[in-house]
Structure formats: structure tokens, C-alpha cells
Design brief:
Layout: H1 20-43, H2 53-58, H3 65-86, H4 98-108, H5 111-124, E1 129-136, E2 139-146, E3 157-163, H6 170-173, H7 177-184, H8 190-201
Length: about 200
């Protein structure tokens, strides 16, 4: 059975950029719903109970038809959010460094250009979805996914992801998604992003 991971910091640690109220709603309600619904689906097919959520999401084509959409939506939601909490941290917002910086400069020219392109793409995601920096074909690139889809289903490794569902920001930023995106850069955990790249390079 899958379980809701604890936040790696207190609910108010990302304030004022992401409020405690949003974190409680986002983590305790929305993420928990993904976990609960995924578990209910897996109960129907105990043979899947030993698989990780990554395995389930990557191998959607092998999931029984009666739960495939639930696994796609709620398994993807569980996976994406579990990464999302780790991709943020209090008092961060420093710049990329080391190999990550090299890869960003190679693909985008400089960090500011990368942030600008990422932010513009995040704002333009239609409806609900995610904006990602991914490792793909030996370089970093940008990709958007709808709903709770994961870049893993496209064979791309997620390094940094931004949730642009309204539940991620509406309580604080209302309909001003660009303001949320701009504020979010202040809590990006670049150490975690670098670690994900290091793992992808192995």
C-alpha cells in the first residue's frame, strides 16, 4: 500500500512565497486523495501491490483496463507531488551550480534565459498540469504535461517540476498564475535538482 509522505519541512516554511494554508490543502487533502484512490485501485489487482509508483506510471500500457485511468491520474498525482515537495525547500532560491549549471547553460545559454522560458511555458499550460525541466537525450530541456501525467511516460527524467493546478496557488494568488510562478523560484531546492541530475547521469 502506498502512503502519504510527510513534508520535508514545516507547513509554514515556504512562506511568504507559498502559504501554510496552501500547503495544508495541497498536501493533506489533494495529495492524500491521490494516494487513497491509487490504493483502492491496486486493491482490485493485488498482483500490482509490489510495484513502485514509478513502475506503475512508466508501464501504463500493462495496467488492467479497469484501473488504468485511475493509475494514470492518481498514481501520477502521487508520484508528481512526492517529487514536488522535495524540489522545494525553505530559504533556498539560490542559483544552479556545478554540472546542473553547465547543462542549463549548454541548452539555454544562461540561467536567466532558462527561468524565463520555463516561467513562460508554465504560465501557458492550459488548464491543469505541470511544467518540467527534464533530462532527455543527454541534455536538459523543457516539457509540459497535462493533468497528473509524468514525463517518465515519455521516457524523460524529471529534474524540476512546477505544479500549475489551481489548487497549488489559488488560495494565495487567486487567478494570478504568473505571480505564483515568479514567487516559486524563491523556494526551488537546487540541491535536490542537482541530485536528480547526478542520478540520471549514472
Amino acid at each position: 500500500m502506498f502512503s502519504l509522505p510527510d513534508l520535508p519541512y514545516s507547513y509554514d516554511s515556504l512562506a511568504p512565497f507559498i502559504s501554510s494554508d496552501i500547503q495544508h490543502l495541497h498536501h493533506d487533502k489533494h495529495h492524500r486523495t491521490y494516494v487513497d484512490n491509487l490504493n483502492k485501485a491496486i486493491e482490485k489487482h493485488p498482483e500490482l501491490s509490489n510495484k513502485s509508483v514509478e513502475d506503475l506510471v512508466v508501464s501504463l500500457d500493462t495496467i488492467p483496463d479497469d484501473i488504468k485511468m485511475v493509475v494514470r491520474n492518481h498514481g501520477g498525482g502521487h508520484l508528481n507531488h512526492s517529487m514536488f515537495w522535495e524540489m522545494m525547500a525553505p530559504h533556498k532560491g539560490q542559483e544552479p551550480a556545478g554540472t546542473l549549471l553547465d547543462k542549463i547553460q549548454h541548452s539555454f545559454g544562461d540561467v536567466e534565459t532558462f527561468k524565463k522560458q520555463f516561467s513562460e511555458a508554465a504560465v501557458k499550460v492550459f488548464g491543469s498540469g505541470w511544467q518540467w525541466l527534464v533530462w532527455d537525450n543527454n541534455e536538459v530541456s523543457l516539457v509540459s504535461t497535462p493533468n497528473q501525467d509524468s514525463p517518465l511516460t515519455q521516457g524523460k527524467i524529471p529534474l524540476l517540476g512546477l505544479d500549475v493546478w489551481e489548487h497549488a496557488y489559488y488560495l494565495q494568488y487567486y487567478n494570478k498564475r504568473p505571480d505564483y510562478v515568479e514567487a516559486w523560484w524563491n523556494v526551488v531546492n537546487w540541491e535536490n535538482v542537482s541530485l536528480r541530475l547526478d542520478q540520471a547521469l549514472k
